[in-house]
Structures are given as C-alpha cells and as structure tokens.
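To whoever picks this up:

The nightly regression suite flagged Transcriptional regulator, AraC family as changed. Nothing in the input moved, so I suspect the structure step. Input below, exactly as stored in the fixture:
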Amino acid sequence: MPIALFNYIIQNSNGSSFTRVPVDAVKAFIESFILLPSDKITGECLAFNDGIPTIAFLTGENDFIEVTGEGGLYRIQSAWLSCRVLENVKIKASCSKEPVLIIRFNPIAFHRIFNLNAKALCYQYAWELDQLGEDFKALCQIVLTTKCIEDKIRKIEHFMLELDRNTWPRNFVFEEAISYIMREKGKVSIQTMLSSLKVNYKWLERSFSNYIGISPKEFARLQRFINAYSDLVTSKGEDLLMIAIDNGYYDQTHFTKEFKRITGKSPMEYLKSGN
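Regenerated output under the current build:
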C-alpha cells in the first residue's frame, strides 16, 4: 500500500469525512473503510504495510499500479491485497480523480472467512484479487460495477455478511494484543503485554504467525516505524533526535538505521527527495 495511506490514518485518527465506520453487523471482520484521495498516491511513492490485511480498489477503467522491489515488478489493475512486510519497495499509481476505496480487515476473520494462509500471502509484495479465488473475484466485480461510493460500501458489507457463515471463532485475547500494540504505537514491552494478557510467548508468537504471518516483535516494529514516519513528515525533520526518542528508538542513529532499512534512504534524504 502507498505509505500515504498509513500517514493519512494516523493524521485522521479522530475520524474524518474520508473514513467510514462499518455497520455493527460487520465490525467483527471489517475494521474500517477509507476513501484515500487519489492525489495522495499519484506518481511513485514508498510502499508500506503495517501487518493488517488491507485491500485497495481503483475506480477508473484504466487505473493501475506498479509495485517494484528486489522481488520484481507487479503490475495490477482494479484491486489488490497487501499483507507482507515491505522494505525499500516502491509503488507507482496511475489513477483517475476518484478516491481509492480501502478496506481494513480483522486479521483473524480475514484469513478464516477467505480460507487464506497468512504466511503464504507474505511471498509477494501485492496480490491481484483475481489470483485469490472466486470470492475475491465476486467482491471485485461488486465494486467495479457499482458507481456510488456509499453503494459500494453497502454492497461490500452485505457481501461479507453472506460470506460469514459463523465458521470462525473470535479470539478476543489476540485481538486485544493487536489493539494494545497499535494503541501504544509499537512502544511496548512484549513481556509486560504477556503478563497483562495472561498468555505465554509461544501462544502469542503462534497466533501472530497464523493470522498475520509475522512475529509480535515485528508487528510492533512496524507500528513504531509508521508513527515515527508520520512525525517526521509532519515536522519536516526539525528534530530527529526527539522523533527517535518519542517513538521508542534508542537514539537518532537507531532511528536512521531503521528508516533506511525500510525506505532505502536516511530521513533527511527521504524528505529532500520528496519521496
């Protein structure tokens, strides 16, 4: 996904006209709908994923994205899914003026309802929905053949309710673990969290592996980075040391090393490049 999406989520955490809360009946498996303005992703930008299964729908007939990195180039039209950790990966979009429709899913529900393997989804930067089975093809068709955004969302909710056949058990402890890490912006002691949730590390690690495809420490690392990234672009890099400390890094060097690992550039190089 374009990193602008996650910065947009953080900057609008209190809600905005571009965020839609799903109806109560589907809140167990859809976290939110987001209408990302197309100007946020036009051209080439950094790609990122925070570990939460996310689908994006382009609305124009000729819209497309290209995702490039060491793993090759993926050209996708219409809609795509992103799950894996992305480091030094770029996304280039050519899209109409209509906003990109984003769906953020509950990880457990997503993989159970669609019968997907979280680890297997980590093998590619992005997946075109047509690659993932008939349910995704049907979902894509609904979005592409419906004009009004509000109607698209309503039909998606209905579609998900039809798919949910009560075949997946809620895992409230794991859901709380995800919420806790995100609420704390990745600045967590895993040991403290284990004590609070009254679970052992092997159970937590297995749950993250099964439902997200990465370890809890890696998930926390991604949350810490994206919040630091948001602070960086908002402040235009005015105080790198303060950004580093505020977001749980040991010092500026630690933050710079992590930033370069994910973006391929130092913080100031990234800001100067505009990308």
